[in-house]
Every structure is written in C-alpha cells, then in structure tokens.
Amino acid sequence: MGLAPRLNAILRAVSSQTTASPAIVVAGDALVDLICRADSSITGVPGGGPYNSARAIGRLGVPVSWIGGLSDDRFGRELEAGLTGDAVDLSLAQRTSRPTTLALAEIGADGAAAYHFYTAETSAPAVLPGPLAGGLPASARALLTGTLGFVLEPMATTFEALALGLPDHVLLMLDPNARPSIIPDADAWRARMARIFARADVVKASAEDLEYLRPGADLEDTMRWIAAHGPRVVMMTDGSRPVRVLAGRGIHPVVAPKVTVADTVGAGDTFGGAFLACFVQGGGTRADAADTERVLQAARFAVRASAIVCERAGANPPTLAELGGWPEA
C-alpha cells in the first residue's frame, strides 16, 4: 500500500472515533455479496444497498449513522470495519449471533448483477423496534431506507414504523430496490410501498423497480403515479441511459458520463447516497424538495459518483476529493 492510501485509511479510522452527530440516517440491510464472475471466480465483498449508501455518504464527509443487524461472525466484523472505516456511526446498529446474510451476485457479460439471497435465520432481518423506541438522533435531517429493509421480517415491520413515525422536519428518501426472487408476496410488498410513498419526499428507483411495482405500465406514468401519493421528487435510474428526474412540473433527463464498465455493483446505492449527501450538505430540507434546480444539482452530482463506481470492481464509492468537491451553489 502506498503512502496516500495509508494516510487515507488512517484519517478514516480516526474520523470514525470522532463521528459528528448524524445529519443522515440510513436504515437497512448489510450482507456479504459473493460475486460470481463470468470466469466462475467467486469473491466475497461487503454489501447490501443501505450499507453501500451509508459508506458512500461517509466517504463524502457528511455525518451519517446506519441502522441494521450485524453478526458477531467474521463476515459481520468485516462489515462493521467497512462502516467504521468510512466514519459511519453504529450507535443504533443491532448485534446478533446469527450468521451474516449472504447474496450471490452473478455478473453478466454486460457487467450487470443478478442476485440470489440466503437470509433464513441470518443477521440482516434481525432488527427489532425496541432499541429504536427513542427515535432518530435529534441531529438527523434525513432518513434513507429501502431494499431488503422492507422485505425481511422483523426488520421490514420495524422500518415501516420508523419511516411512518418520523418527525415532520425529517426528509424521507426511499429506494425500493425490488428483488423479486426474495419477495414472498408481491401484492403485500406493493401495498407497503404505497403506504411509505405517502410519507416519502424523494423516491429513487430503477427501471426494473418501476416495472415490478406496476407491471406493464409506462415507466414515466409509474413515476407520476408515485408522485401522486406524495413524493415531490421521483428519480429513475436506467443503466447507462439518462436518469429521469420528476421534479417540479416536468421530467428532466440527467445524462451519465461515458465510462468503461467493470460492473454495476453498488452503482444505484452510491447514486442514492450521493444524491442525499449533496442535497443535505447544501442545506436542503423537506420543503426544498420542491426546488427543481437544487434537486437536479444533487442528481448531477450523484450521477458522477455512480459512474465512478461502475469503473471499479464491486461497490467502491468515491471520496469527495475524487469528485472534485461539492458543486457550487
């Protein structure tokens, strides 16, 4: 390891011991991705959508806390080290002796990943409401949640109650990140999403998420359908195609830079984390979700962050320095 990476590692380790009160809380699953590439090689790496998003926010220097289940096994310790190494506060994490949840990510020729999950009696679902009875830290301005957090029980029921019981000033960003192979009841999942849409301010979804939410419907119509439930911002990611952002009175394209794709693992998670980090650090509030230019500025920043992830193997979010700092107001 060269001098610069060593210094960065030391700085992250030090900052993890002095994490500021979180401005953003991320709630959801942490697991290990077993990445199976076209040559049949398998590599285990820390993952889970909310886990990746929390690390993306931490690497950008925005104070962040993560809520989820962590095993005391070797994989669990590696997951914890990844979070603390990126200055993510773990005071609300829930520890368990259950083994770490696993996901097999099969990488196709185009770099896209197909997932298969191993979740029964594992760590990710083991999130109970009791430790969260006091609510979020008083400093929290936003909550980002979704993915398996609204599928696996008892975590799903715990996080739904947390989201619907948020104080009025806390912005809620939802990433459905649908995984059909693990959703036991599609209609029940869609009903839960509709309930949470009613409280959400920002929804970030992939084209696949929207298709699963309303099969056969036009994707932009589904974006508008979500917005009709209450969110002021709905963003659709669609691979290398422009991100479509429903904000204000229209749907706006945000073009992604052209990159050589290693794989897309963690790209959407990084987009969500980077969007919220940019929006919050710039002073954005729930009311500011109606500010189209502020929203688009954060979306453009997030697209650049996710493009960098696509150039790398696995979920490896960029630092603020790699992105050239925050966009100018």
Q: Can you describe this structure?
A:
- The protein has helices spanning 3-17, 49-59, 74-85, 155-164, 186-197, 207-213, 219-229, 267-281, 292-310; strands at 24-27, 31-36, 42-47, 64-67, 69-71, 88-89, 94-96, 102-107, 113-118, 142-146, 171-175, 202-206, 233-238, 241-247, 250-254.
- With 329 residues, the chain is α/β, with parallel strands linked by helices.
- It has one domain (16-310): 3-Layer(aba) Sandwich (UDP-N-acetylmuramoyl-L-alanine:D-glutamate ligase), CATH 3.40.1190.20.
- The strands form 3 sheets. A 9-stranded mixed β-sheet has the order 6-4-1-10-11-12-13-14-15, with helices on both faces. The chain has a 4-stranded mixed β-sheet with strand order 3-2-8-9.
- α2 crosses α8 (267-281) and α8 (267-281) runs antiparallel to α9.
- The chain is globular and about 50 Å long.
- It starts with a helix and ends in a 19-residue tail after the last helix.
- The model is unreliable at 1-18 (pLDDT under 50).
Q: What would the keywords be for this entry?
A:
UDP-N-acetylmuramoyl-L-alanine:D-glutamate ligase; 34% helix; disordered N terminus; 9 helices; four-stranded mixed beta sheet; alpha/beta; single chain; nine-stranded mixed beta sheet; 329 residues
Can you give me a brief rundown of this structure?
The protein has 329 residues and is of the alpha/beta class. It is built from nine helices and 15 strands.
- Helix-strand string: HEEEHEEHEEEEEHEHEHHEEEHH
Q: What's the number of domains? A: 1
Q: In CATH's first tier, which class applies?
A: Alpha Beta
Give the helix proportion (percent range). Answer: 25-40%
**Terminal-residue CA separation:** 37 Å
- Which sheet architecture does the biggest sheet show? 9 strands, mixed
Order of strands, widest sheet: 6-4-1-10-11-12-13-14-15
Derived from helix and strand composition plus strand pairing, the structural class reads alpha/beta
Considering the protein shown, what is the CATH homologous superfamily?
A: Ribokinase
The helix tally amounts to 9
From the 3D structure, determine the CATH topology. Answer: UDP-N-acetylmuramoyl-L-alanine:D-glutamate ligase
Radius of gyration: 18 Å
Per CATH, the architecture is: 3-Layer(aba) Sandwich
3D shape: globular
* Poorly predicted residue ranges: 1-18
Number of DSSP-assigned strands: 15
Percent range for β-strand residues: 15-25%
Q: What would the average pLDDT be, to the nearest integer?
A: 91
